[in-house]
Amino acid sequence: MSDVYVYHFMRRGPAGEYLLSRRRATLETINGKGEAVMESQIVVDHTEVDGNGFLIGGVDNGSRPMDEIWAQIRSLERRANSRDGEALTLNESGDGARIYLLRLESSELRIQAQRLRKQRADSMAGELGNRITPQVFAQFGGGPTTG
Fold it and tell me: Which among 44, 55, 86, 98 is least buried, having the fewest CB atoms inside 10 angstroms?
């Protein structure tokens, strides 16, 4: 189990201009390719980074906020699962403190994921509410039995 920090980075384009990377990468990967944008740092599980040090299946700069939240939820769950898996491999008598810490971290990561799920659901409900327009019914002349 290990958390990995990944960043967007500024790289040189074909005309010498600076471009923001579409994918995040580890600092080791960015070294020599550009300059890390430290404000873009996120923490992911080691299983979310490919052999070249790039984030697998992450969202890019043009992604919708809902996609970004979903990616964060998925990453939090993977990190919690990774801690749970490590705790299962340890010996309760000799590694009790480490097991406790891993379970505590796992629980906190799941709480964060649950908060993001609620935030995402609330945002989706708000978007849906904005799309639905009230229907206006006009009264036509005559009574209810007029045909």
Answer: 98
Q: How many domains does the chain fold into?
A: 2
**Same-domain status, 96 and 39:** no
Query: Residues 72, 98: one domain?
Result: yes
Residues 55 and 72 in one domain: no
Instruction: Look up the domain containing 37 and give its range.
Output: 1-61
Helix (H, G, I), strand (E, B) or coil at 20: strand
Own/partner pairs, 84-90, CB within 8 angstroms, 24+ separation: 85/1, 86/1
Residue 18 near residue 12 (C-beta atoms within 8 A): yes
**For residue range 17-26, what is the model confidence (pLDDT) as tens digits?**
999 999 999 9
